[in-house]
Amino acid sequence: MSSEKYENELYDLAELFKMFGDSTRIKVLFELCESELAVCDLAERLNMTQSAISHQLKILKQSKLVKSRREGKSIIYSVADEHVRSIIALGMEHIEE
After folding, report:
1. What is the mean pLDDT of the segment spanning 20-37?
2. Between vectors from CA 61 to CA 55 and to CA 95, what angle results, nearest 5°?
3. Per-residue pLDDT reduced to its tens digit, 46-95
């Protein structure tokens, strides 16, 4: 692997881990690992405003950790893939040791 590609990948990895450095984003991801949810449901579960949840979802979606789909008038959010669930599960396993 070229040095430049290696540096770029390490930068991308650091950016990924930054997404997990915010407790609100972790709470959102944790909830979405359990089930698909709309913004209003996340806001209720986390006792936060819909605006605050929407802001975090936008960041998580840009980082490809969360995906969305339309269901009628609602937008339903879920984790992007099993990698996200694995990262959360491994993190929990690590802190519980």
Report:
1. 96
2. 85
3. 999 999 999 999 999 999 999 999 999 999 999 999 999 999 999 999 99
Output the pLDDT for position 1. 72
Q: Give the CA-trace dihedral at 11, 93, 59, 7, to 10 degrees.
A: 10
User: Three-state SS across the chain?
Assistant: CCHHHHHHHHHHHHHHHHHCCCHHHHHHHHHHHHCCEEHHHHHHHHCCCHHHHHHHHHHHHHCCCEEEEEECCEEEEEECCHHHHHHHHHHHHHHHC
**3-96: what CATH class?**
mainly alpha
Q: What is the separation, in whole angstroms, between the first and last Cα of the chain?
A: 35
* Boundaries of every domain in the chain: 3-96
